[in-house]
Amino acid sequence: MNVLVVNAGSSSLKYQLFDTNTDAVLAKGICERIGIEGSKIEHKNLIKENKAAKEVPMADHSVAMQLVVEMLTDAEVGCISSMDEIEAVGHRVVHGGAFFSKSILLSDDVLAKLELCRDFAPLHTGAHIMGIKGCLAVMPTKPQVLVFDTAFHQTMKPEAYVYALPYEYYEKYGIRRYGAHGTSHRYVSAEMAKILGKPVEETKIVTCHIGNGSSISAVKGGCVMDTSMGFTPLAGVEMGTRCGDIDPAIVPYIMEKEGLSTAEVNEMMNKKSGFLGVSGFSSDSRDLEAAISDGPSNPNYERASLAVNILKHNIKKYIGAYAAIMNGLDAVVFTAGIGENNPHLREIICEDMEFFGIKIDKEVNAKALRQPNTVKLSTDDSKTAVYLIPTNEELVIAKDTAALASSAK
Ligand code: ADP
Predict the structure, then answer these.
(1) Nearest atom (ligand 1) to Cα of 370
(2) CA atoms of 189 and 252, how far apart (whole Å)
(3) Which of 50, 189, 231, 367 is deepest in the core (most CB within 10 A)?
(4) How does pLDDT run across 343-365, given as a tens digit for each residue?
């Protein structure tokens, strides 16, 4: 089945056309600056290996979707002859609140519930709704499926998702742990469970999705027991520009000392902290690694090392904590931009972890970057398996969409 996967942002719309019979991506592209002057679409046909880019005004997401269909059906760079060949559309949705524990076919009721999730992720949810409405305008009769980043985490028990705040805030405002990157954690944990070769119900896996935004999950028996992101994606481990877990009392303290407003302190924790805040020069792990490998002669060496060591320390603690709540550990998985491409960080995380049965092959690990496929990093005598599994959230969205669209026929 040909499924169009759409990831709509407030001024952008990324898309991939999948053939779900073969899992192949036929074409992909991005519309940028939607609703802003200078809008453009970039498109790649991965079968013919050609591409096109066009600067054309896009007043809204409906115009963008119309252009996507034009590119997909274009005689030169297109891969289908008409819109009829797109059988369903799958949307990535960042936040489904407590309403959605799995992917779902779009309906009026679903759209109304999604509206209620706006408060949790205002920018993202508003953009998703524009993307969905754009698709409805261009292809009103196609089945559309919503796939939520929060859904996989809905198996957590209240003891993992309720904060020790007055309970009325949970009841009144839905303040609880929701987690993020669920589609990625679901994909890599399922791949890891297949490799372990035992019934999924018996598996205990820690998945480390480490990118600009990072989250760690405990996946026991195929279900999330806990995850490091919380009410918002600010919680958990140190990230590119986000602080992760801090003592909450620091917030009013800094606000008072620096005279910051709530918006300013929010901006500081989301945009000026993490790697950027600690290193003082970059949020990108490649820049930090370059400074570290230069050694102490590089003026950024010390703070870059500190920034990376904080993340290492955070992740080690999560692995230990999650092994404790799962009462065991079969595997640790690394994925996403940093997890897949930063051997140094993986090595220092796995160092001195024999207590947890973790032992990696340093040579294999050092070479494992920019790999399109799964790589086993642990040694044969490591009690706990350690793997690099490239994530593929779009494939999960395409497959869920195909399954739900087929069942609706
Ligand atoms: P996002 O959370 O925005 O999806 P990514 O998963 O793309 O982020 O991760 C971005 C991080 O991954 C950056 O810190 C970047 O340095 C790192 N990264 C991405 N690709 C590579 C690469 N090829 N080599 C080293 N680091 C990489």
Answers:
(1) 23
(2) 38
(3) 189
(4) 999 999 999 999 999 999 999 99
Are 2-148 and 182-393 the same fold in CATH? Answer: yes
**Cα(337) to centroid of ligand 1, in Å?**
3
Topology of the domain comprising 182-393:
Nucleotidyltransferase; domain 5 (3.30.420)
Q: How far is the C-alpha of 55 from the C-alpha of 358, rounded, in Å?
A: 51
CB neighbour burial string for 163-192, b if at least 16 within 10 angstroms, e if fewer: eeeeeeebeeebbbbbbbbbbbbbbbbbbb
The CATH superfamily of 2-148 is ATPase, nucleotide binding domain (3.30.420.40)
Reported as a single tens digit per residue, the pLDDT across 39-98 is 999 999 999 999 999 999 999 999 999 999 999 999 999 999 999 999 999 999 999 999
Is 274 close to ligand 1, i.e. is its CB under 6 Å away?
no
Nearest to 331 by CA among 149, 180, 185, 211: 185
CB–CB of 3/88 below 8 Å?
A: yes
